[in-house]
Each structure stands twice: as structure tokens, then as C-alpha cells.
Structures
1.
Amino acid sequence: MFDRHKKVWPGTAPHHLTLPETSLSFNLEVSATRYPHKNAIIFYDSTLTYGQLKQQVDTLAGFLAKDLGVAKGDRVLLYMQNSPQWIIAYYAILRANAVVIPVNPMNLTEELKHYANDTEATVALCGQELYPNLEPLLDSGLVTRAVVAAYSDYLTRETDLNLPEAVSAPRQEMSRDGVLLWSQVMDAGRTPPVLSVGPEDLCVFPYTSGTTGAPKGCMHTHRSVMATVVGAVSWTPATADSVTLATLPFFHVTGMQVSMNAPIYVGATIVLMTRWDRYTAGELIQRYGVTEWRNIVTMVIDFLSDPKARDYDLSTLRAIGGGGAAMPQAIEARLFEMTGLHYIEGYGLSETIAATHINPPDNPKAQCLGIPVFDVDCRIIDVASGQELGVGETGEIVTHGPQVFKGYWNRPDATREAFIEIDGKSFFRTGDLGYYDEEGYFFLVDRVKRMINASGYKVWPAEVESMMYKHPAIQEACVISTPDPRRGETVKAVVVLRADAGNDITEESVVAWCHENMAAYKAPRVVEFRDSLPRSGTGKLMWRLLQEEEKQKAGN
């Protein structure tokens, strides 16, 4: 067991967590029973109490089970932006004994088809602004029933805050078989079925990709999800009087766990934003006395670049942190000067449903992943041999802990490849290269896998390449990263055109096509045409060579 870090362990935190033997949805029932009249959600000045939240979750759960035929273990697509309906839908799916399939709202129709095909989900809960992307799946019969939500239904009070277009848009009426409005479902007044799932049942499948193939569902149980929920409020103590500013997307595991599930576990208040807006964030912090704010580094950089940032009252903040990329030292210093708080960085993956490592709140290190959290055994191994390495030696980060997933849905081969046995225990191979220091702090060096980190969004080149091959003029494509002053790095495609492509195909037109056919964060922002791509003697595409060439260009 790796225990080098115990000397810097947070003084207020236990060394072991005893996890509840209950389902995740029971957390809401507890908080609603304890605090029925307390605000669970503040949504652009409109509120929803814990009692109201539970009642609406129960209504939707009953409708899913009794009207839409959702049974225990069924997968249900959740395709919305951050909103009260996202939270209600998430807990209703769980309360119906089913499994949540969170879908990035930036995904388009072709990407949705993969989620539906892979999980065999026939029911979707969808934001009305995203419905046009879902409708072709209803036309084809891949999805048979959909509940469509208008976020404006939950604007019950006037506000002077800037509203995203998707939030202010009025409810649209729809009339087609298989499609129901959220308001209709809420008016049905259904009661939920008997709760029959426990800690070992499947709970949620956040999707991730590897170096090959389409995105894969990470199978998490109620127990593994509970591990990082309880861990979050134990590492940085939170209570029912805590107020969390939720700016991270809920489909992403950090937002899901730290900004939604953890506050609900303790009965705290979630101040909810659908889209990031630095002016709205500053106003919400001072208006509602926000105490915790988990984010990605680019949000902090944007917030601090506002000349008015110093005008906001930030005195209620007790904890700021997140991940996605290393926090620049100059930005961290400015944040500390303004708030007196260090930015607490952490590290986790979809496969670990958020953090396996977090910096100790009272002893953080800059640009550091942190130390292994509760009951996590983490090692560094040689990538080729699997031999365990020591202090300061760079190798692959592997981890064992209660939050590690059960495997990839319907991918037994990929699951086997993702684990290695050490000292009789199964360790997840993260695909990240790193090392630890004398005190047990872990640091990220590079990636074993081909992953691009664009403003905290993970982009998997193989997935982008497979979609680019649908362009009729593209013969070959290799996706790499290129430096970007704002995003850290962004997506570049090196492309070989077909001989009959025609003279009207330009690099700009390929970029435009990509943005029309895939999520904006995945779509290449730079395209370079070449006559051929480098290949090894066995015919394998030498993507590393192209990546190194790009790094050299950036260096020059």
C-alpha cells in the first residue's frame, strides 16, 4: 500500500471512509426529509427547495417506470445542459432503478447514435434546444420515447442576470408520437416504483475514449459513485450551510460529483449556471454567499481577466479548486492575493468518477495532482515491463480504490487491457505518465494515450479521425494537438485528400465541415493538407512523428 503521503494528510480528514450501504438516490431522500424547505437549487435567482426537488424526482421516476416502461438496469439517455431538469432527470433515472447515460450537450446526431446503439437506450430526456439533434433517432426508431424540457419553465422569478439563450427561450409546443413535454410529465402526478437497487447495482456510465475506436461507457456502481461523493465532503468539509457555485458541466464527472451529488449528499445549496459567464459568476458569488467553487483553470483565468473582478465581494469563499489543466503560478498567485485561498488541484478520470488525488487543503503544491485520497493505492510502473518504480522515476500512473469503475460497457477486451495486477490487487492503468516526490505528491508529465486536452475537454484523436473519414474528399486523416494561447492546446488534422477531391476543397471548408458534424470542442480548428502521411515499415500511421513535428514548429 502506497503510504508515503500520510505525513501530509489533511488534519481534519480520517484515513479511511466507511461508505453508505445505500443507493445514490437515497441521499436526496435523506436531505429532503431533513431540509424540506431549504433551497436545493438557485437557478438565475429562481429557487427549488429540497422538498420540491424530491417531489419532482419522484414524479418523473414514476412516469419513466409506469408510462415509458423503464425497468431496473435499463439505460436512459440524459442529453441536456446544466439546469434544474438535469438534476431532476439524473435522480429520477436512479429512482426508477435505471442507469444514467450522461451525454455531452455539444454532441450532435451521429455521436448520439453511438450512445443509443451502444447502451440500447430507447428513452431520452432532452433539452428543447438539443431536440433537433435527437429527432433523427426518433425518426429511425433507434430512440422510441423522449421527454423534452424547456429550461425557462424553471424561471419563476424576475432576474437582472444575463440569461443564456437556451435558458430564456420559451417552451415550444411539440406534437409527434413518442415525444412528451417535461411540463406534461410533471402534471401527470405519478408515484415512483419500489426502490430495488443497492450499492453494487449499476448507476451511471460516463463515456470516455481510448486510443482506438468509439467512446466507451465506464460502468460505475452506486458504491463507486458514493466513494467520491463522500470523499469530496470529507476532504474539504461541507455541511448543509455550504453554498456551491456549479459552473462545471454535469455530464462531466467532476461537475457531476463535486457540484451536484456532493452538495445533495449534505443538503447544501447549488447555485446553478447553464453556461459559463464571468460576470454572472461574480454576481452569484456575492449575491448568495458562495462558499465552494469547483471549476477548470480556464474559468479562473477568464474570471480574473475581468477588470471588475476585484469589485465583487468574494469574502464568503472557503474553497476554490479543480483540474483539467495545471494552474499557472502567476494566476494562482493573483487568486491568492484576491481571496486568501490557494487553488486546490486534483486528478481523476471518467473511470474513477472524479478524484483519486487531491492536494491537501492546508499544504498544497502548485501544478501538482495532489496525494492519493481515501483508501486509494496508487503506484508508478514502467509502461513496458509493469515493474514498479520509485521516487522521482517517470512511468504510468496506476490506481486501486473504491471509486475505480467495473469496466467498459460491452468491451471485455478493453476492460482486460485497462487493468494490471500488483501485489494481488487489480490496478487501473490510467494511461498518464507521472512521478511522485519524497512526500508522496504526484505530478503529471505526459500521456501514454493519444488524448488532447482543450480547455479541460478531453478529445480523443481516433474518434475525430473516424468521423472525418465520412467527408467524401478525405482519403486519410491524422489528428494531433497544436498549441493554443487560450485553450492550452487545440485540435489539428493533417489530411490527405482523395485524387478526385476537386479544387474547391480547402482547408477552411474542411474545418467548417467538421464543425457541422461534430461537437465544437472536438472539431479540428486547424487543417493541414499533405500529399502523404508517414508510416512505419509495418504500415502503421506514425502519429507521434507528426506530433513531434508540430511541437518543433511551436518551439520555433
Note: Residues 50-66 form the longest helix (17 residues).
2.
Amino acid sequence: METYQEKAMKQQDSNQQWLEEEAHLAETLEVVAGEKQKVEDKLGIVDGNDRFIHVLDDGSNDAVVQQFLVKNQLRTLHQLRLSQRQPYFARLDFTPDASRHKADWLKAGELSRVYVGRWGVIQTPEYKVCVADWRSPVANLYYSGQVGRVSYECPDGSVYGQLSLKRMLTVEDGKLTAMQDTGLAGQEKFLTDALSQLTSARLREVVTTIQAEQNAVIRADPMQPLCVQGVAGSGKTTIALHRIAWILYRLQKTLQPHQLLILAPNPLFLSYISKVLPDLGVDDVRQTTFEGLCQWLLGKRMPKLEVIPQLRLRLSMSKAQRDRLDESLLRKGRLSLYDDLQAFLHFWEEACLPKQDVKLGSTVLLTAEEISRYCLTDFRHFPIAARIQELLKVLRNRLNTVVDKLRHTIAEAADKKLEQLLLSMPDSPERRQKATLLLNSRDQRLEELSQLHKTFPKQVEKLFGTMNLLEVYQLFWQRMAQQQEEYASLAETVTTLVDKKKAAREDLPALLVLAKGLYGLNVPDVRHVVIDEAQDVPPLQVKILREIFQHDAFTLVGDLCQGICGDGGIRQWSNLSEDIFKKPVEVVALSTAYRSTAEITEAALSVIHRHPVEGVGHTQPVVRHGTKPALMMCADESSRLTAVLETIRNWQKEGYRGIGVAVKDTKAAKKLHKALQEAGLSEARLVTEGDESFEGGVQIMDAGVVKGLEFDCMLIADADDATYPDERFYAKLFYVLCTRPLHRLALCCVGKPAAHLENADVERKQA
């Protein structure tokens, strides 16, 4: 047992360390202020006002370079201003082995104090590292290293040494507010404190709380296909964004932000994640949905989409209807369809060719054999439609020769007749009339020849089979139906949409395959692709993206337990290793649920365990406790509304601001929103799938909008047995709803509660 004197000495030592850290913070802030002033001086900024900085864009290379430099300086300035509030969040005392001649920027054999922050702080002109960027190699020791013998990888190879101190520091508004030396216990406390914050503050603290399993995902080989199976609340989306920031730092000499692409499930989700990237110092990363990418790739050929949200449609169906829909989605998104589409393109490149000679009158311009040779051999390196255009160039050249001869023949014949007329008749009104008729006839024939010269290639083009994307897609499914009868109903569905000049969203991957073969695609320079909610992405979509971008640098994150959009998505992550990527796919599991309290996580797990999902391992909740989820038993709709309103008001009194209220469908969400507003909750906002902004506050939404979002508190307002039947589909959906909150989960039901809650440890109340 410690003596009073020992405790006093420890306290004195702690006080001395605190004073030392305060002194170092003051020195660092002086450096930050100095570097900030240097950048402002370079930019000509007075009194911190940088709104009027302008670089004349005259199209010259000098202007482009100047704009690039100014943009980088403004980014540095922004980061330095943020660093004035929090320059760093950790300190590492590390001694590289003396045998190492060079250890990154540290001196071999000497103890270095490394401070780690969101952004590196470099003191100029000596370029001394005052704060190491969290993405730098040495910062890996903060996320993955424990005190003792450690190593990290830098561009020159492995650096080994002794980590003697790992200290977490909390700096707020330029002041030191907390300090924690970590063994494992201290690290867990720091994590728990950070997770206990509200959603808005928690997003800012992600960099400081990245765990070892998450760090491994962030720093995985950027050129290797990576698949992350992350349980709900494991931080997979945020970690994917941090991975982007790390990749840009790691490959900053060869990779620009616009060469990275994030594919998200919907615009609302893009709005949600867009709040994270700027805080990571990342700008200009391409962010879009798959539909948005298709618009980019296809341009004017992008078909109008029949906008029927799959999840919303699925919620209105019986199980038998959902099974039929799933079968259709599975067939449209399966990987083997790629080979079927390629086989059809091979068939169509020949079937679309005219089988007769192309003639102008009695003159043969192109024989059928020539057409076949040009399109199937000589121009084979072009897409099919481009081959036809190249063939028409040959036709036009030959047509020009024939037309020129005809023009010459017509003009020569007219000249001879005119000469004979002039010689055979004296000048008279009759001769002038005949001469005029002769010249008019010549001009008319020449005009007709000119028109034929213009229209003939278009007439020949019509001899080829259709190159219209939707029509070719329709022909593909008709051919599939001819070969296999089970495709007949699917072919009919496609025909119905094509007749309206539309396509369904699930048609887009196949349409891209056909468009690539028919015309080629307008492919942007993308060198790394991140796909979020990947469990809902059909394998065919991943395949065509790999073929379009021609590399294996893909990061896919998702959770098979949240695959609520049917069997059109990925059933097992192993599917991605079968004939998609050239390199082997690395599958990593994030098994710790950080978002919710242990009580909420355990309740959610009891829901999904009723219908286990193959390929998903054990989920470990983080040790952060809170109140049990509350299940409020309501006698009728009136008492349900009262319970919902009182719950929201109570949460607001506790200081919570990010409150999500979910019901099954859109109609119910609109009804509840109207009722809550009439009851005095004027700040409640109705969120629909078409919304493109995530604003926080009290948000009322249907279940189809909730996935991927995060709230302080979540209330499922219709947790009735009739609303969420005891089926696998509804188990996944209910699991998604239960895993959204950080701190509070409540459920309301009228009548019998959903069977999914049968084994859940919830506090049942009479409302």
C-alpha cells in the first residue's frame, strides 16, 4: 500500500510534468503563430482577411501554377489556424536503435519527443518537425504501439526502437485541459470519454481515438483491394474517410485528391460524410453515388431512371413478392452476367452488320465481305458503334469519288448539249428558253446529287442494327429469354421500361458493360475507389468498375448484417475474389462496436441473432455503459404520440441534440411529423430519401433513410409485431435501426411488441 509520502511525491511529479507540457504547448503555439504570419505575409493578407485573394486566370501555365501554389498556401493557413486551437493530441517518447543510420527524421540512438496532431507543423526555414501529422509513419506508434520494444515502417524501411512514453493530451482553445499516460487502462478511459460526447463533437475526435484494428485498415496497402466487414458502429465509414486522407498523405507526390472517388448509397449519405473530410485536410475528392458516376460515364446516353426506392418498395411487399424481386435483382447483378453480356456483344458485333452489298445505283461502294472485314478485323480495336463510324468514313471517301465523277459527267453532258444548241439555232427567245431549261435541269440534277451525297451515309447507317443503348439492352434480355425460359418475365419487365425510354437502377451495371463495348466510356482519371455500404452493391457493379478504371486500388466497406436491399448485393465477401480483381482481396473484420453503449449494442445483437448472417463473426461492444433501451407499451395511437413527444423532450433536457425518430414507411413518417408539429415540436424536420443535406436536430424519417446515419438518441416509434414481422429481412432492418444511437435507444409499440425484441434486455414501461 502506498504511503502518504509516496503519493505526495507522485503528485509533485505529476504537477511538474503538467507544467512542462504547458510550457511546451506555449512554445508550440508561438511556432504556429509565427508560421501562420509567414503564410499570411506571402499571400498579402492583412488582419486575417483572406476573402479577397484572387489569381488572374489568363489560361497560361504560369497562372495554373500560381493558382496551385495559392491554393496550397490557403490550405496550410487554414490548418495553422486550427492548430492554434489544438496543435496536437499526443506525445511519444521514442528512441530509434543506434545501429540505424537514418530513422525517418529522428536521430538514431537519441530519445525524441514526438508530438502528434491532426496536421503537421513545420518550422521554417530550417524545416524542423514540431508536430508530426497523424498520417506520418512515426505516428503509427500512437495507434498501434504499446510502451516497450516497437517498430514502424517508413519509406526507407523498418525503424526499430524503444517507446518509453505514450501520453494522450487534451488541448482545447490553446489550453491544456487533460493529460493521460497510457497503459491499456488509460487508453480505454480516453476512448470512453471521447465516445461519450455528442455526435458533433465526436466526429472531431475520431483522429485521437483510432484503435489498432481501425489503424490497420487505414494504413493497409493502398494498391491492394481491401474489403472491410465492419459491424454496426465499428466506424467503418469514418475509417474509410481517414484511409483516403492517409493515402493522399502517403502518395502525395503521385496522387491528387481528384483522383480518388467515394461512391456512397445516396446524396443524404454524401452530405453526412462530407462534414468529415475537410477536418482531415482533404479537399476536392470526388464524391458521388453510382447513379451520378453513370451519368458521368455515359453522358447523353444516360437513360432516365424509374425511381422506385428498392427498400421502400420492399417494405410494401409480402415475403413471396420480396423473394421474386430478389431473384430478379440477383440475376441482374450476378457476376456471371458479365460473361453473358460479353458473349452478346460478340454476337451483336456481327449480327448488326448488313448482309448485302452497299450500292449507289449500279455502283458497288462496299461489298458485304468488306463490311465484315472492316468491322470484325481491321477496326476491331474500336468499340462497335465507333467501328461503324470508321466504316462510314471509308464509304464517304468512296462516295466522294463516285459523286465527283457523276458531277463531272452531268456537267460535261450539259455543256455538250448547250454547245450543240448554240450551234444549231440562232439567237432567239426559243433558244434562250431551251438553254435555260437545260441549265436548270443540270443544276437540279447536281443539287439532287449533293443531297444524295449528304443523306446516303445516313441511309447506309440505318442498314446496321440499332446502337441505341436501351434497345440493345432489351435485345440482350430477349436473347437470354430465348436461350433460357426462366428469363422470360425479366425480359418482359425490361421491355416495359424500355418502351417508356427508361431503365431501373439495378440495370445500370449491365448498361455500363454494354456501353463500354458499344461506344467506350468517358472515364475520369480515378486511381483509388472507396465504396461504402458495399454489402448492397451487386458483384457485377464491382466487376465493371474494375474494368473501367483498370486497377485493383479499391476499398470496400460494409456489413453483411445490414444488407437490407435484397439479394442483388454481395452475399459473401469471398464473392469479390472470384474473377473481379487481379490481386487477391484482403478481407479485414472490424468486430468492435464503438458507437453505442454496451446496453444498446447487446439489445441490437439479440435482434440479429434470431436470424444469423453467414460470414459475420463475433461482435464485441466497447465497455461504455448507459441506460437500458426503453420499450414503451402504448394503449393506442394517442398514447404513442404522447410517449414519443415526452421522450424527445426529455432527451433535449438532458442536452442531446441529434435525435432520430424512425417509422417503417414514408406515409407514416409524414403523418408522425405533422402530429408532432401540431403538438408543439416545431423544430422537428421531415427527412426523405431525396434530401441532399444532413442538418441534425430532431429528424423524422422512414426506415429506408436511416441506414448509415448516426444520432445521439434513436426512437423507433412503431416497434410493433405487425409492423416488423419475424423474418430475416425485417430482422436486418430492425438491427440497422437499433444500432444508430450513441447514447439512448427507445421503442414504442401499440399492442404486441416486435418478436425481434423477445430476447432483448430492455426496460418495459406502460405509456
Note: The chain is about 45% helix and 15% strand.
3.
Amino acid sequence: MIQKYFTNQAKRYASKWLVLGIDLVTFGLAFVLSYFIRFNLTLNFDVDKLFIQLPFVISIGLFAFILTGSYKGVVRHTGVRDVYNIFNAICLSSIITIFFVIVNRQYGMMDDFTIPLSIIIIHSLISFLAMTASRYLFKTIYQSLISNLEIRKNVLIYGAGESGIITYNTITSHTRSNVKVIGYVDNDLQKVGKQINGIKVYGKRDLNRQFFQKRNIEEVIFSIQNIDHKRLSKMVDNLMEYPIKVKIVPPVEQWINGELKLSQIKNIQIEDLLERAPIKIKNSKIQGELNDKVIVVTGAAGSIGSEIARQICNYQYKSLILIDQAESALYDLQQELRQKGHHNFIPIVGDIRDKNRMSTIFEDYRPDLVFHAAAYKHVPLMEYNSYEAIKVNIAGTKVIADLSSLYKVDKFVFISTDKAVNPTNIMGASKRIAEMYISCIQQESETKFITTRFGNVLGSNGSVIPLFKRQIETGGPLTVTHQEVTRYFMTIAEASQLVLEAGAMGEGGEIFIFDMGESVKIFDLAKNMIRLSGLRFPEDIDIKITGLRPGEKLFEELLANGENTLPTYHKKIMISKIRELDYQQVRSRIDQLCVNNMFFKADTVKLMKEIVPEYVSKNSDLCKYDEKEKESKDKDISKGDMIVLKRSAPLN
């Protein structure tokens, strides 16, 4: 171990002294050459005086090189910084030499050391050029040897701007990079056909199957900053038909210390194509809303709850209470926040269904704000576990909402879902009923109850994208429930930021709806994920249509029948204008539903359909309740017809 350490240290310093030695030899030869150039390549000068001056000049060079550290750069990674160090060393040596010559002339100490100023200037220029050229020569030779020994893959850089050039420099300067840049691709016609760093710039019209095959190109690296995701998606789609891999350079903000590292150039992910430009809130009220407040987040270990917690940690709150029943996930969040330097938070393992436990928490901490994200959300599972859906999504929400009202919480923000709109499943209906209960309690409470409603979240637990990734890893097939099924998607960070903003702007009683952009066809999403993995559809991995799952819709909606929206000051957030409710009757029925569910009564689903008339089951055994209700209505109608006929008979 010790021997290995000293061996490595010896190699490390030996390489530096070798560079220093070569620099000194180059510096000395440049001084000799400067005399020949000054005297027109003749010997019309005092050669003996030259050889007396040479050791003196080399000594000054040695001092300047050591002082500036110009010899410490790794030659195979020579760049602008190394050239700058050489320039500093040459300038310093020239200044010292000129200073010595002037002093020597002034006092007439040593006539042999009176070097002409023209010689010093010529020497400086030759030394700088020679030392710089030697480094780049060694770098080129090294890269040439490495490229001959290693099997290299050919790549194209999409984008010939500043980011593309930085990407090229990052690739070519990395020792272990087995990549050869064949060219740039750019839409700017002024650049097409020209060269950058000796690499040709192609136009997008040049890209075809023959182009990729002829040049044996294996990868295309997108290096365009602030590119619109729709435009990126379109460009990637155009490349999907070719047998290549597509990679992407991250935004500048994610570069390490402002420098791009080779390890940061990643395979392009489906999230890169689905994400929209990050939301920028100009007139944010969040800071003022959270400042010096005690905040509770339920479901804090979940996808949305944890991101809300992360974003809250960036503000000057008084205390943050994180509640979740998932012990391991809550522990992971605790460790993550501590590692980031956040300590003013309290993780609590607790169940929102436990009213006594929740009451104790509210009593101890007296929260000002509550973000209620705790819920069961998996549609197929909840379809046949209605007891749990009602117990958590409705009764659990009722517990937190009632306590918020009792302890005079300033604002209560409820995280709902687009599946609550015209629900076709237990999960969606339970969330809609929770929305209705919040609307009811708002009528008699000082607390401002606010609901936020949005669709699927990228990367969340149970999201379709992680499922597809696992299926690709196992060789497929990918499973899609229906060829026409579509969904809205939003990033976790984006959704959480909008929740905070909606909570800040809410005055109580609103249902805020987020702009989810355009819906995405899941079948197309699956095909793109296969292609982005470097595989072919259907040759390598196929897609299997499994049929709609119990309670699943083809298309999600953000507005229920009879609802429309009003704008807010934030273009991504709208307020839903909901139809009026008979609050007393609705609340009474919700209380009855929770009691019936507690005693495992069989009429809970039927009661849910009565509370939410637009709840019509699909692809589920629960459709029988809709059929019975329809039969009952048909019988009532037919009875009514018979009565009318009997009454009208005597008139004939």
C-alpha cells in the first residue's frame, strides 16, 4: 500500500519535472534562435557572450515557471488556461530580464550581460509560440495514439452554438472518451457548410439513413440550451427511424461549478420530451404566505407531499410538521432534508384516520397552514378496496379538515385529482366527495379551505413511465390498456410549486385547476420509450393491449359537467366555477357514508353514487349499481306513464 502510494507520487511529480525540463530546453533554444533571427541568420554576434547569457536567462525562466506553475498543467488536457499560464510565465521572465539589463547598464556592472532589448522581445515571442505549440503537439500525438488503440464511436452534436462547442471540447478533452465527433447539425443556414474546430456543420436536410450509415454514426447529442420541449420532441421523433441513440446535454444551471462534465451527458429520457418549460412566478405571494408560519404537510413522504416539503424548506417558515404513516419513506425524506442543511422540521409517523393522534398534533403545534396530500390514489386497487378509499380519502380528509377548522388554521390546501371529475371509479369518487365536504365545511368555518386539482405527475409512485422502464429492462412487452387512452402529465416540482402558489392566492372555497398542457397518447409514449432505449418496435419489444382496467377512463377531464373556469393572475392557474350544492344535505350524507363504512355496511358504493350523481362506473363489477339505478328509474317512468293513461282514459 505504502509502496504503491510512493510509486504514484513519483509518477505524478516525474511528469511535472519532465514538462519543466522540456520547457527550459525550449526556452533556451528560443534564446539562441532569437540571436540568429536578430542578426539575419548569421554569426555576426559575440557567440561567447551568448553562452554566458544563456544560463542566466534559463535561470530567470526557471524562476518564472515555478512561480506561475506553468508546468503543472496536464499536457494531454492542454487548454486555454494552460496557454494563459505560459503567457504569464514568459511575461514575468521578460520583465525580470529587462529590469536586470536596465540596472546593469545603469551601473555598468557586467558588460557580458547587456542583452539587447530586441533580443528579449524576439525571445519572448518565440518562447511563447514554441512552448504552446509543443503542448498541443504532445496532446495531438497522445490523442492520436489513444484513438488508434481504442474502438471509437462516431457522434453528431445537434447544435453549433456556444453550448455545442463546449460539448465538443468536453468530449475531446476527456482522456477516457471513446467518442469521435463527426460533425455538428444546426438550423442556421449561415453556419451550414462551414467548419468549427475543423468539424463540419451540417443542416437538418442532410440527415437521412444513408448519411448515418455512410459515416457509421451511433449517437446524436442534443446541445441546445432553453429549447422548447415541443420542438425537442419533434426533432427527436425525426431521428427515431434511424438506428441511433439520442443523448442530451443538461441545462447550464445543472453544470458542475459552471463546467460541463462528460458524465452529465445522458441518454435522453421520455421526461425530457414531456416536460414543459419551468414555471416562473413573477409576483409570487408564497414568501409572504409562509413567512414565520407553522406548516403541516400530510402525506409528506409521498411524491407530491415530499416535493412540497422540499420547496417549503427554501422559505423562512417557523416550523414544518411532516406527517406520514410510511415510516421508511418518511425516514428517507428526513435524511435528505438534513443532508441539504434543513433542520427546522419535525417528522411524525401517524395515520390521518386516527382522530385522537391528529388532535394531539394540532394541539401541540397549532399550525397556521395545512397542505393535505395524504391519500390512496391507485385506481385499480381502490376499485375493490372501497373501505380503505372511503376511510382515508374521505374520512381521513374529514378528520384533518375538522381539526383545521376547530384549531382555526388560517388556510387548508387540499390536493385533489382530475379523476375526481365525472368519476368512473372509487378512487375518483372518493376524492370528489372529499372536495364536496371541504366546500361544505367552508360555509361555517373561519379557515380558508382551498382545493387544487391536476392530473398525472411524472415520476410519481405508480406512474406509467417507471412501469414502462421496468418492462423494457425485462425485455417487454410494454402493457397499454387501450390504444387510444390519453393522459395529462405534469412534473412533480411544477405541480408542487403551483400548489403553493394556489394556496397563497386562495381566499377560501375555490377549486384551482392547473393548466396541464396537451394530453399525451400512452401508446405513442410507449413507442417512444422503446426507441429512446435504442430498441425497435415491434421487432425488439412489442406493445400489448391489455384492455381498460376497472374504473379506468380513456380520457381524463379537469372540469366536471356544469363547471367552467375563471382566470387568475397566474396563467397556469384557473378557478373552477362549480355548481351550487345543498351543503346541509351533502354533509349529512357524507357523515352517513363514513359511519356506514365504519360498520362495513354494503350500501357504501350506492351511497357514493347518490352523493356524486355523475359517478358512473366503467369496466368494473360496480357497474351493477348503475344498472339497478337505471332499471329503477325506468320502472318509475313506466309507472308514471300508466297513471297518465288511466287518468286520460275517461276523456276518450
Note: The mean pLDDT is 81.
4.
Amino acid sequence: MVRDGTIGPETPVRADTLTGDRWIPANELELYKGLRDSPGVLVRQALTSPAIPWFTALLVGVELRIFAWSQGTSVQERLWDHFTKYTPAIIEGDEYWRLFSYGFLHGDLGHIAMNMLFIAYLGIALEGVIGSVSLAVLFASSVFWGGVLSALLMPGSHSVGASAGDFGFLAAAAVFGLRYADLLPARARPRFGVVILVYMLYQLVMGLTAERVDNWGHVGGLLAGGAHMALLRPNVGALWRARNLRISFIVALLTGVGVLAMARLPIPLVPVEEDGLVASRPVWWATGWAATGDRAWVSPVDGGQLVVRTVHHETPISVASATESLLDAYREVDAAIVTRNDTVVERDGVSGRHLRLAYEAEGSTRRVDALVYTRGRYEHRVVFDVPERSGRVARLWVRLFDDVVLPLPEEVAQAEAATGGWRGMLKRAEGAADIGNVTVARAEIDAARRAAPGETAPVEALLALAAAYPDEAVPALAEEALTTFPEDGRILEAAVRALVAAGHPDDALRRLDARGAAAPGDRRVARLRRELFEE
């Protein structure tokens, strides 16, 4: 009866072994004092006659005041722009306050009404048994760690609401009730233990099927609140109060460490594959357009742009030509573009250039880091274009460029795997020529010519290789081919193209004239004249 509070300090009591025939006030008995000051009695008193819940009242008041203030359209837009949980802004923009501030914003009246109901219902009870300071730390850490888990696992979404704190309160009430079930008076049991645990699990399951619910935020708040409460004891007695303050200080310190850890968290990347080019991009960057008109991945925070592109040219292109083409594209944006650095690089046996540029756009300076690689008729670009002062994003190019890989383009890989006698050899030669491997291409063609000496296709392939990669042997090669197959129109066309590419247009025109005289009205001759000599 003392533990239940039925016998108060002034209640007259009589016990033969203690008082004999006398009735005395209960507080005169040493036994009463021991029972009256026990944790069980103090906890029951805190739950049945709690002190004023200062923190709970302040929290609910602040939440309601912010909601009322945010109902103006312009105010709500500003709050949504700068204070919601939004991973790109947190990690790219170093806006770590969002991991707390989102817990004070709500979407509509129903949203805030539900959250404040939970906070008021459970906060009053929890504040009575763990104290205002511990409850404040528990709420803040639940909101923070709920925001962290949501930021990592739902990086593209905006989140608002105090529900991570709600789930922290639910978990704390469940843990307290399970640990101290024997101390709970009957009137407090609906707020603690199994009842709350069942309701919390029900809310989690319901969240899985509902739209626009941040379930990872709920889970993070639940884990933080439950773990914190598992370390606390009822806030009664000087020793337990001091212990709870130390535990809550450590939890607050760990939350601060969490903020510092988020400040060092790298921007997560996912692979991007182009034909013969593998690079990485930030996971939440969306498709858009670069300043050069290329398709790009664009940052939702500061307008950073990443181009990962493979260009297929009709003829082989040099690194110098590809670099100049990229510079011309930027000169159309800013004619005064500045080249800060131009370095020769190599990756996977492919030569390229690393350019560092600066240009003006819309009144601000932007910085460009670009990798340009060429192999045969393939041009590979990785272009990182960001504002000059864009914090952590500006340094991202190092990781992006380290991740670049240049595997074989798909068509080339298929050609390398080709079989089927001399035709397979020609297919492999074509693939090798496409990536500029002239030695391998010529060896495959020579092998095909030996395997099929009477076929024109290997000779035509050799002339096509000479047109793509001309050298001083082209005239002799064309003479040999035309002598061996004097009537074949395809050989004539291949030889003429090789001669023009090698810088022998007069010889090519002489060959066309000779064929035109021998076969008047030959349409192939007329077409080549128009195409190659603009006649």
C-alpha cells in the first residue's frame, strides 16, 4: 500500500510488532521511509502525479508555431528550399542542419495533428520518468538518426515531419515498459511496454503500404530512441539522475560525431556506361543538358554538369582534333575561355588529354575538367563542369576521373570473337581498324588474302584500311589491286578513296578517267567524281 501510494506520510498506522497499541503517522516508521523512497514508489508517483512536462509543452508549442508561420506560400517555399531533409543539399551543399530542421516542418494540418498527438501523449509520460534533458536529447537524436538513415537510403526524396521523433518516443516507451513492467501502475500501462510495442509495429507495417511515407526515417528514429532508453534508468534518486545525464550527454556527443561523419561522407556514385567507356556519376544527378549542348547528368543543387559520351566518327580522329572540337563547343559559350592546364594522359593503353578550363556563364565563373580519349574512330569524353565555388562537388572530379575505364566497344568485342575462316579474319580486322590497331588489322587482312587468294573482299578491306590510315605505300597498293582486279568496280572505288586520303588526288582522278573512257556511262565513276572532286 505504501508503494501504491495508498498510505501517505500522515496516514495513521498500527502494527503490534512495531507500534504496539499506538497509532502513529506512517512517516515516523523507518520501514515507511525505506519503502516510500524506493524507485518503485517514486516511479509510480512520477507516472500518476507527474511534474510539469516543460520540454513536451515547449516542443509541441514550437512545432505548432512553425506550422502556423509556414502557411504563407512564400514562407513555406523558403522553408522547403532550405530546411527539408534532402540528401543532395545535405551532402553536396554541406547543409547538415537539415538533418534536424526537417523534424519541425509539416505538410498539412492532418500531418502535424497526428505527430503532435503522439508527442503529447507519450512525451508527458516519458518526461516524468526520464526527465526533461534526457527526453530532449532522445527526441533530437531520434530525428537526427532517422534523417541520416533516410538520407542514405532515400537520397532523392524530400522529407518533413517529426515522425522520426515520434517513433523514437514509441520505442522508448516500449523499452521502458518492458524493462520496468513491475513498476508501472495500472493507469500508466497503456503508454508503455507491450501495448506500445504492438502499436509501433503496426504503424511500421502500415507505412510500408502508404504513399509519401519516409519509412527509413521511422526506422532510424525507432532504433535511436530504443537504444537510448535501453541505457537509461528511471530518473529518481540522485545517483540515477546523474547517470541519466551522463548517458544523455554521451548520446548528444555521438549525435555530434554523426554530424561530423556526414561532413566527411563521400558523394555516392553509380556507374555510367557508354560504348567503350565506363565512368561514374553521383547517384541523384538527373539527366539534362550541358553548356556545350551534350546530354549530361546535372546536379540538383548547384548546377554541376557531367558529360559521359562516346562519339562514333566515320573516319579515325586524333586526340588533337577531338580536343579542339571540345574547345570550339565551349568557345561558343564564352569566346574568352581560358585553358588552365592541358596534360597528356593514358588509360588502359589509350592516349588522351586532360584539360582544365575556365569560362564565364550567366555572370559567374565555371570550371571544367575534361578527359578526351580517342582510338580509331571512337572519341570518348568525360567532362565535369561546375561553378568555381561549389564546395565538395568541385573536388569530385578526382574520384570521377579515377573511375574511368575504357573497355573494348561492343562492336569491336564482337568482331574480336568472330570465327568462320577468312571472313572471320576480315571481321576481326575491321574491329581492330575501328579502334586504331592498324598492325593487328593488317595482319588479319594478310591472313585472309592468303586463305582466299582469289577473293576481292580482302583486297577491298586492305584498301579501306589504307584510306583510314594512309601511308606512303598507298599508290603501290592501289596499283597492285587495280592490276589484279581491273574490272571490279568496288576495287576501283576503294583504290580511289585510298589515293585521295593519302594525298594523291591526281592519280585517283587519272584512274577514274581511265575507267570512264573504258566504260562510258559508268555511274560509279560519275558518283565518285561528284563526291570526291565536286564535279
Note: The chain is about 55% helix and 15% strand.
